[in-house]
Design a protein that fits this description.
Order of helices and strands: EEEEHEEHHHEHEHEEHH
Number of strands: 10
Shape: globular
Structural class: alpha/beta
Distance between the termini: 29 Å
Radius of gyration: 19 Å
Helix content: 25-40%
Bound molecules: adenosine-5'-diphosphate, magnesium ion
Strand content: 25-35%
């Protein structure tokens, strides 16, 4: 298991390169020989049936799952630090009766960072600044359990963007979000991608969003079945086989 951090790397414009990645859990081979590239500022969608190994691949990228093969993160030449990864997990559920507010959630996540120690009075303005990146300042005093699916995703996204990462990884951000919320969230991700030249890797089952928003689609089912431009993948035999013509999963 090797994770490399390059200044420049495979090419100056490439942010994440996965080579020959395999994951076993116990005796089960979950992923075999995965190869993919996420270039700077690209939106890449990872699709595949349930149990295909999408979340497992994201966990390997986050260093939370052992793997064989190579993961290389490249950052611009001028950056001296390791690349930062922002992660939006598959939506957690909060009890509507839970008293935790959006501000409390941020306080808990941000105040553990040394820069915020002793800066309690400055914290609220910091939270507002974070929420402004997702146009969500009005959510600051809402209880997390009462947020709509789309609002919760925006809050989780704002948390993942502080500090601003080099690559953003989202696991099924569109599930539990209504159609209007989906378009809003994808528009927002697109805006953030352009504003901060951020690479985005997300899993999704909402294929209708892909032609408009994704630069590249990677279809996996234990291994990469096909990858390329959204229309090419969505019109492929591999896509038909993975989602329509196969029994089982
Ligand atoms: P996806 O996100 O594409 O739905 P996952 O990556 O969650 O798929 O799961 C891929 C396979 O790995 C599934 O068969 C799942 O049962 C198995 N798996 C995932 N996590 C674990 C685990 N912690 N222990 C055992 N098996 C797991
Ligand atoms: Mg999953």
């Amino acid at each position: 298991m090797k994770t490399h951090f390059h200044n420049g790397g495979c090419s100056d414009f490439c942010c994440l390169k996965v080579q020959n990645l395999s994951v076993c859990i116990g005796d089960d081979q979950i992923l075999t020989d995965i190869n993919l590239h996420v270039h700077c500022g690209q939106m890449v969608a990872l699709i595949g049936p349930n149990g295909a190994g999408k979340s497992t691949l994201l966990k390997a990228l986050l260093g939370e799952r052992a793997y064989e093969g190579n993961i290389t993160f490249s950052v611009p030449h001028e950056a001296k630090t390791k690349p930062k990864i922002g992660y939006v997990p598959q939506s957690p559920t909060f009890d509507p009766g839970d008293p935790v507010s959006v501000a409390d959630l941020f306080a808990c996540c941000l105040s553990s960072r040394p820069a915020f120690l002793g800066l309690r009075s400055g914290l609220r303005s910091k939270v507002l600044e974070c929420l402004s990146r997702v146009h969500g300042e009005e959510l600051i005093d809402k209880r997390v359990g009462t947020l709509s699916g789309g609002e919760l995703q925006r809050v989780l996204l704002a948390l993942a963007l502080e500090p601003m990462p080099n690559i953003l990884i989202l696991d099924e951000p569109l599930s539990g979000v209504d159609i209007e919320g989906m378009t809003n969230l994808m528009d927002m991700l697109d805006e953030i991608r352009q504003t901060y030249d951020l690479s985005i890797l997300m899993t999704t089952h909402d294929f209708s969003m892909l032609p408009r928003y994704a630069d590249q689609v990677v279809l996996i089912d234990g291994a990469v079945k096909i990858q390329g431009k959204p229309d090419d993948v969505l019109n492929s035999d591999e896509f038909q086989q993975a989602f329509h013509m196969k029994g089982g999963k």
